[in-house]
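Q: Please design a sequence for this.
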């Protein structure tokens, strides 16, 4: 999440609000979006009125603004983000808020929130990779005539251009971007409507909810939908690979900045000095 962070340190959050809330509060935006879409489906079936739906949405938006400004009071006795939001909603608008949970279980609600969260992070990760690739490409174009040794086993092997090395990094980042897009195909499935595990006797228009939440398709099996976390594991693997490629690039540059190689020098923005040895320039992010 880029907004709505707690201003307090994580241990204090956990102590004050409970371990679960201190982590899953990040799902608040998606929990609220899912509830608003669910309310629309309830309205379509005549379970709540249009006025009740508007009342629910208005108060959910107000809660969202409070969370983003760190003014929302979390209650650790309510276990998680979902119960905190629902309890606050019901407290403020009365029995209308209680109607919101009709035809919905916390099981499919959690599954929905997590999918929305991962979808957003996949999009953000892809955007950041594209910015990185563009920056590396610009750097390669600026140094297209620089010739350097290519190494195997830290031994000089063949002459290469620095641009050729940098373009190789872009290739790796492109595979990372492809993996993120591929992960999205399995993440982009609406689980809401699955209930606790076997659906609900109150039938809602799941296609309507999917359109409102920008899902490509709806889940086919309710038991699988509420238990599936494959997409999370896949996303974590994608992040691990991105981290590996970033580490490889960073380590190459760090080695090349040493006196033994002397190929490049980090700017002061990306380096610190030594308190004892002023001749040193350490490639570390300044604290």
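A: Design:
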């Amino acid at each position: 999440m880029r907004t709505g962070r707690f201003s307090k340190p994580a241990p204090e959050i956990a102590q004050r609000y409970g371990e679960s809330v201190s982590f899953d509060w990040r799902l608040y935006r998606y929990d609220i979006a899912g509830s608003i879409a669910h309310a629309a489906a309830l309205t379509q079936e005549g379970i709540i009125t249009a006025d009740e739906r508007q009342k629910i949405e208005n108060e959910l938006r107000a809660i969202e603004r409070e969370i983003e400004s760190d003014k929302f009071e979390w209650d650790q006795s309510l276990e998680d983000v979902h119960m905190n939001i629902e309890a606050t909603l019901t407290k403020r608008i009365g029995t209308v808020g209680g109607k919101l949970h009709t035809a919905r279980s916390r099981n499919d609600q959690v599954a929905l929130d997590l999918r929305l969260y991962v979808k957003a992070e996949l999009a953000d990760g892809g955007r950041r990779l594209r910015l990185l690739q563009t920056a590396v490409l610009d750097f390669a174009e600026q140094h297209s005539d620089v010739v350097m040794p290519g190494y195997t086993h830290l031994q000089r092997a063949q002459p290469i251009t620095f641009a050729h090395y940098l373009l190789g990094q872009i290739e790796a980042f492109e595979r990372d971007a492809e993996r993120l897009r591929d992960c999205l195909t399995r993440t982009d499935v609406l689980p809401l409507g699955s209930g606790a595990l076997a659906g609900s006797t109150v039938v809602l228009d799941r296609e309507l909810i999917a359109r409102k939440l920008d899902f490509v398709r709806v889940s086919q099996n309710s038991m699988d939908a509420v238990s599936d976390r494959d997409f999370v594991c896949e996303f974590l693997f994608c992040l691990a690979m991105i981290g590996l490629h970033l580490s490889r690039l960073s380590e190459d540059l760090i080695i090349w900045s040493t006196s033994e190689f002397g190929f490049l020098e980090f700017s002061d923005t990306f380096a610190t000095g030594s308190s004892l040895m002023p001749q040193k320039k350490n490639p570390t992010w300044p604290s």
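Q: Thanks. Anything notable?
A: The radius of gyration is 25 Å. The chain has eleven helices and four strands.
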